[in-house]
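Consider the record:
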Amino acid sequence: MKKKWSLLKVMEISNLKQDINDYLENYFKGKGRYNRIIYDSCSYSLNIGGKRIRPTLLALSYFIYKEDYKKVMPMAAAIEMIHTYSLIHDDLPCMDNDDLRRGKPTNHVKFQENIAVLAGDALLNEAMMIMMDYALKNKENSLKAAYEIAIASGAEGMIGGQVVDVISEGKTISKDELQYMHSKKTGELIKASILAGAILANAPECDLSALEEYGEKLGLVFQIKDDILDVVGDTKILGKNTHADENHNKTNFISVFGLEKCNELCNTLSEECIQILRKLTVNAECLVELTYTLLNREN
């Protein structure tokens, strides 16, 4: 029988983002000696803002099965570190050459390019150490969850998508290539966040299959919405430069499908996500609410 979604749970989940922020803000404090700048650089990009979508998804997909989401906070933090490292590297002069991220100077502007490269490397390695430590201490499905995240971060996941993004600059690519690029670059880590949380909670196989489909669709919605905001968004609200794809002559969902069709796709895919969640063996209204929030976001 599905658990009733109570007001108490809603109130508890409202504190989730703050719990994540507190964990990340304190993580690098007091670390380093002669190498102190690397921790300052890591902490800077990790804590200058951000929606915390991936760690929130991990915590919520755990929470719908087991209520003590604070137990998986290290794994949630690890996936945010991986996401942040990818942003630091994305912004580098050799990549997108951006000077604004979350309304602040990008890492290489603040700390210089060489330190920014190393900060990204350090965050990725720190995330892997956190996950290995968690798996050693908690056994059960912890290693399986960590493996899911690691695969999603690699050459057949996020990095694979980034490679296609880089080599496609200045070219017109097919719909299949576009879908591959974004399903990997954006979608894989989102899907892994959801699956890892459910795996850590020992979710049944039928739900894991459904959540995998939900993660794929949600990742696509998230990217289409990003492409829409890149065209119609406000730099001051977004905290990053708009029209980035146009300026770099990159194919995106807007250039392929048009703005109106992209808005339709967002609505259709979001409703499909909701239907999947409502067929799970547990009450997943917190994930339903988050899905609607992602569709309606302005940044």
Q: What stands out?
A: The mean pLDDT is 88. Residues 7 and 13 are 10 Å apart (CA to CA). The chain has 16 helices and two strands. Residues 205-232 form the longest helix (28 residues).
